[in-house]
Design a protein that fits this description.
Blueprint (H helix, E strand, L loop, with lengths): L13 E2 L2 H11 L7 E4 L7 H8 L2 E5 L2 H10 L5 E5 L14 E6 L5 H9 L5 E9 H7 L10 H9 E9 L4 E2 L6 E8 L10 H13 L5 H4 L6 H7 L12 H15 L1
Parallel strand pairs: 2-3, 2-5, 3-4, 5-6
Antiparallel strand pairs: 1-8, 6-9, 7-9
This protein binds S-adenosylmethionine.
Length: about 260
């Protein structure tokens, strides 16, 4: 078969290191019969061992050349190929208790994580390879530079752990940055706590929209002096000092006021 030329616009860096591929599959721990979907199977580095174990795999892939190769290599019993953009894919069509895996295209990693978060109630777990700095932002603690909107919105929905790092040399072509494997496990619905998740997302976006400004400025559309007193939060703080729980408390307070 002809050699595939990696397409930059699709964030294509293909895994070629067999030890890393084995480690990723071990981290996923697939069991035959589970519903697993791989985002961006590419040339099949993780696809092949997953199909060997599972018997069947769903994949979402945007590149037609790669889709053609997958069709040539696997039978419809082994693979269901969802052609198109993972950002627009309706993961609800795959059912419940979904396991999602992928060496994600780094150019769309943040919007893809937000898209996937919307399906959290149907997901059992997700294991992804991402740029290390994105993973550090996902798992960051308050009051650190990496802590921001991505940390708060994902930590609200998921328990997350950075599992291990992957050097650029494990890929062809090699990316410029180190990557990390991260696992996301949805928290139980009754532990989430926000009365209005859209409002929570708006408050968090506002608080981190201008990082250097204090809450008094960034949340002026949501809270006044009395609200800060009721909440026991200092309006002179910056958003990065607030915990996920603080943001939920603020959003619920605003929701109550607006009722
Ligand atoms: N899984 C392969 C591996 O580990 O070698 C390929 C990983 S490569 C970093 C990213 C893959 O995602 C490519 O196959 C690329 O074509 C695909 N991709 C890029 N953008 C996509 C999108 N919006 N929706 C679905 N797949 C996409």
């Amino acid at each position: 078969m002809n050699e595939h030329r990696a397409r930059k616009r699709f964030g294509q860096n293909f895994l070629v290191d067999p030890n890393i591929i084995r480690k990723i599959v071990q981290a996923v721990r697939p069991v035959a019969g589970e519903t697993v979907v791989e985002i961006g199977p590419g040339l099949g580095a993780i696809t092949a061992p997953l199909i060997d174990i599972l018997g069947h795999l769903d994949v979402v892939e945007i590149d037609r050349d790669l889709i053609g190769r997958l069709r040539g290599r696997y039978t419809p019993e082994q693979i269901t190929i969802h052609e198109g953009d993972a950002l627009k894919f309706d993961f609800a069509t795959l059912g419940e208790s979904l396991r999602v895996v992928g060496n994600l295209p780094y150019n769309i990693s943040t919007p893809l994580l937000f898209h996937l978060a919307a399906y959290a109630s149907r997901v059992r777990d997700m294991t992804f390879m991402l740029q290390k700095d994105v993973v550090m932002r996902m798992v960051a603690d308050p009051d650190t530079e990496a802590y921001g909107r991505l940390s708060v919105m994902l930590q609200y929905r998921f328990r997350m752990a950075r599992l291990f790092d992957v050097p650029p040399g494990a890929f062809s072509p090699a990316p410029k940055v180190v990557s990390s494997i991260v696992r996301l496990v949805p928290l139980p619905e009754d532990q989430l706590g926000a009365d209005d998740e859209t409002l929570l997302a708006q408050v968090v976006s506002a608080a981190f929209g201008q990082r250097r400004k204090t809450l008094r400025n960034t949340l002026r559309d949501y809270l006044d002096v009395d609200d800060y007193a009721t909440l026991g939060i200092d309006p002179g703080l910056r958003g990065e000092r607030l915990t996920v729980g603080d943001f939920v408390m603020i959003a619920n307070h605003v929701a109550l006021k607006r009722r």
